[in-house]
Every structure is written in C-alpha cells, then in structure tokens.
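MOLECULE: protein
FOLLOWS: sequence and fold
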Amino acid sequence: WEKFAEWGEDLEVNIAKVDVTEQPGLSGRFIITALPTIYHCKDGEFRRYQGARTKSDFINFISDQEWKSIEPVSSWFGPSSFLMSSMSALFQLSMWIRHCHGYLTESIGLPVWGSYALFALVTLFSGLILGLLMVFVADCICPSKRHRLPQHPYSRKLAPESAQLLKKLDEEQEADEEDISDDETEGKEVSNRNSSPNAVRQRPVNPAATVDKS
C-alpha cells in the first residue's frame, strides 16, 4: 500500500490510510468488518475494493479503470447517508462510554459495579426524559379527544340517498306538526262554543196584559 502511494501523483489519485482504532466513528460509517478494508471514491460514489493486495493490482485497478465494473455502495449505506451517520455516532458514543468507564475505575478508583450502577441510573434518567419528550410531541401533533372542539352532528357530508331520506323525514315531521296544530285550533273553537252561556233571550210576559177574550 505504501509503494502504491508513490504512484498516486502519476495516477492522479489521492491515497491514504486511517487507523479505525483511533477513529471509531469511521468504523461505523464504513461498516468496517475486516482489516484492511479498501474503498475507491470518485464523484461521491464509494466502491469497495476486493481484489488482490499487490502494487500492480492496485495500479491496474486505477489505470485500467477496473473500478467501473464494481457496483457502487447504495445511497442508503453510503458514508454520508443519515443511516451511516447515525451508526458513526453510535460507535463514537460506545467509545466515549468505554473511556468514561476506564476513567471511573482506574483514575477515580470506583469499583466496577459502582460504575455499572452509575451508567444504569444515567440510562434510566435519560429514558424518562426521552419518554416525556415523546409524549409531549405526540400530544402536540395528535391532541386527545377532550381537547378537540365539538363537531356538529351534520357537519359531515352526507351521501345523496341519505340527504334525500333526511329531507323527506323533515318534510313529514313538519306536515305532522301542522296537522297537530290545526287539530288543536279546532278543538279550542269547539270548547269555546260549548262553554259559552246560553244567549237565547226570552221575551218577558206581563200577566196584567193577558186578556181572556173568550
């Protein structure tokens, strides 16, 4: 690899190496499962080299453009994708936790079980905070029913058949109410006539004016 790097200027490529033990984020970003792992990058596309590890094979890979025959890494698993960035952050977090554990047990002198208990409490507290935050966000996006405004029962758009049936029922109900009101009016008139005093006047007869002509 070092001899191949001497040909970089002639081949117009940049050749480099990285120690993933010192850069754990790259181990997750590139999914390093074996060492050494070699990638070819051009125009934002990454291709994994799996050929022989000799200087001549490296040179032929670039000069003969053999890299074009290799399928580039999917955009989902590319080093710059959101998934691989999250994986890189996870690897960095794991290394940070490892360094913190070493500092607590070696520098401070905390027992191993004490370090584990401390990390457990921190994890539990972080989970509670994250859960409360998720509940708050969910309640803002989808509020509960008691916070929703009451809706009019007829606010939804009815089907044509349902609308016609509802209109017919309303008309029948109005007709029934008119018939009931007419019956009540007639009943009141009859009751008024029956309850009024007898207004037939009788002409008084004067007994002194009665003459028997027989």
About this structure: The radius of gyration is 49 Å. Residues 1-69 form a domain with the Glutaredoxin fold (CATH 3.40.30.10). The chain has a mean pLDDT of 75.
